[in-house]
Specification:
Blueprint lengths: L12 H11 L12 E2 L2 E2 H13 L29 H11 L9 H15 L29 H10 L4 H12 L13 H11 L19 E2 L3 E5 L2 E12 L6 E7 L12 E4 L2 E4 L4 H4 L4 E12 L6 E7 L7 E3 L6 E2 L8 E3 L5 E5 L4 E11 L6 E9 L12 E6 L1 E2 L9 E9 L4 E8 L2 E9 H5 L3 E5 L2
Parallel strand pairs: 14-22
Antiparallel strand pairs: 1-2, 3-5, 4-5, 5-9, 6-7, 6-10, 8-9, 10-11, 10-12, 13-15, 14-15, 15-19, 16-17, 16-20, 18-19, 20-21
The structure holds protoporphyrin IX containing FE (HEM).
Length: 458
């Protein structure tokens, strides 16, 4: 039995994150088992919020739709009444899921996928890429005292005909306080709810729907410069039936020039293999995700141009080459090897007195000490500390300083700066003489598990 799930083409930060949240993410735990809250259920509150957010869509102008404008629309009397609305947004805020490329609107849609599934409804194929509004939309949520003609007209404006309206209302309302969950299983519920979630402003384009976890997803490589070598950390998520025990090998070739790798490439076996936990949606797929980790030591002079993997199922079948659709996983000199967060030189710091933690980030930049150079971090914090919606992430610009404790070495200079442990993503930028290098969407959580933590008591 072979697994033939869709192929993931790296790098695609949005798709990779969407796959991870859909099949491994913890948001699903908040609605596991269709739990009650107040006189209703959490899933019902999440789905109602998604509909009310989407209900601003106007098919004639292409404006509105699922865009998180609901964050600014909660003071509209009858339309968005109820504690379930701010509570739902608070659930989403506290899960720290938004990123610079995945906003609250994508979280609202993801929440509906989990909510519907947890109450016995169908799996809704998930697309990401929504764009968050910065203000409220028109007040076009249908109200119960309006007549049928008004409801029909409002749904038409939202892109749904009369039959679809009846279907969508039925699918949504079986999630509420009443216990008639049966109609969620209507075949059409999945289709109608998917359309509801994918009703977005006409200027927005969504990813193709994700229906299954991708085969072979790699972790973005993490680098460190150490004593004439690059240390490269990466990992490959492999899905396989439980009756095989594959071995996975990483290969790479160097930059043209001084070759130290044989013509077949340098290679190393995985340093560890660990089962990954899929969430309730992921488990339904029925395969075991395993993460194979790699730590490659690469001669810094011959360097690396691309890498790939060989998955051997050890069952007599030919090994599977995982090479990103033929190109390999390419590391360009600029920016990947010219500017990187140095994972071994960076560290976690625990302040024992206050029991707080922060990260001391060290950035390696190609250049010599005499170069005129500056470096900055843009730090992204997903969780808002606001007590009521809108819950908005914050970004902070941090000027880095030359790092005394990491003097220039191997053609690199090292900058440092501290970021709070509530930061999840970093953009890094450095200018050396007249050259600017930038790295976007560095995943702090993914890096944090490789950091050394030091404890200090002042
Ligand atoms: C003519 C259109 C609609 C009208 C007039 C309407 C009206 C209402 C009203 C009055 C409530 C009770 C709110 C409360 O007091 O908590 C409600 C609940 C709900 N509605 Fe709608 N609705 C409409 C369409 C939809 C659609 C299309 C969906 C989703 C697909 C939806 C999903 C829900 C859910 C899940 C609840 C239960 C919320 C909870 O129990 O907290 N509704 N709706």
């Amino acid at each position: 039995q072979s697994v033939s799930n869709p192929t993931f083409q790296w790098p695609n930060t949005l798709l990779k994150y969407a796959d991870k949240q859909l099949f491994e993410g913890q948001l699903s735990e908040l609605v596991s088992g269709c739990p009650p809250r107040e006189n209703t259920t959490i899933p019902a509150q999440w789905v109602r919020l998604a509909y009310h957010d989407m209900a601003t869509y106007d098919v004639s102008t292409g404006a509105g739709g699922l865009d998180a404008s609901i964050q600014y629309e909660l003071n509209r009397g009858a339309q968005n009444i109820g504690e379930g609305m701010p509570q739902t947004l608070s659930d989403f805020n506290s899960d720290a899921l938004v990123t610079p490329f995945f906003g609250m609107a994508d979280v609202i849609a993801l929440g509906t996928v989990f909510a519907v599934s947890s109450c016995g409804g169908p799996f809704i194929p998930y697309s990401a890429g929504r764009v968050d509004a910065t203000e409220g939309g028109p007040a076009t949520v249908p109200e119960p005292q309006q007549d049928l003609a008004t409801h029909i007209q409002l749904f038409q404006q939202q892109g749904f005909n009369q039959t679809e309206m009846i279907g969508l209302v039925a699918c949504g309302h079986t999630l509420g306080a009443s216990d008639k969950r049966i109609s969620l299983r209507f075949e059409t519920c999945g289709t109608l709810l998917q359309r509801m979630l994918n009703t977005v402003p006409s200027t927005v384009s969504l990813t193709d729907p994700i229906t299954e976890p991708f085969n072979y997803v790699i972790n973005d490589p993490l680098l460190s410069y150490q004593n004439t070598t690059f240390i490269l950390l990466t990992a490959l998520r492999v899905l396989h039936p439980t009756d095989t025990s594959p071995t996975v090998t990483m290969f790479w070739v160097d930059q043209e020039g001084d070759s130290v790798c044989p013509s077949t490439g340098c290679s190393i076996p995985s340093s560890s293999s660990d089962p990954l936990a899929f969430n309730e949606i992921g488990i339904q797929v029925g395969v075991t995700p395993i993460r194979y980790s790699f730590k490659a030591t690469i001669d810094a002079t011959s360097s690396i141009s691309n890498f790939w993997f060989e998955v051997n199922n050890n069952d007599g079948s030919d090994p599977i080459i995982v090479d990103n659709g033929g190109t390999g996983f390419v590391l360009e000199q600029d920016p990947a090897l010219s500017l990187f967060v140095d994972i071994d030189r960076s560290e976690g710091v625990v302040l024992l007195d206050s029991n707080t933690e922060f990260f001391r980030i060290v950035v390696a930049v190609l250049g010599d000490a005499a170069s005129a150079s500056t470096a900055t971090l843009t730090a992204f914090t997903p969780i808002s500390t606001a007590t009521a919606p809108p819950f908005l992430p914050t970004t902070t610009l941090i000027n880095l300083i030359l790092d005394d404790s990491n003097p220039p070495e191997g053609g690199f200079i090292f900058f440092t700066g501290n970021v709070s442990n509530s930061v999840t993503y970093l953009d890094v930028s450095a200018t050396v003489d007249d050259t600017t290098y930038t790295v976007q969407n560095f995943d702090v959580n993914a890096a944090a598990q490789f950091l050394t933590f030091v404890e200090i008591s002042s």
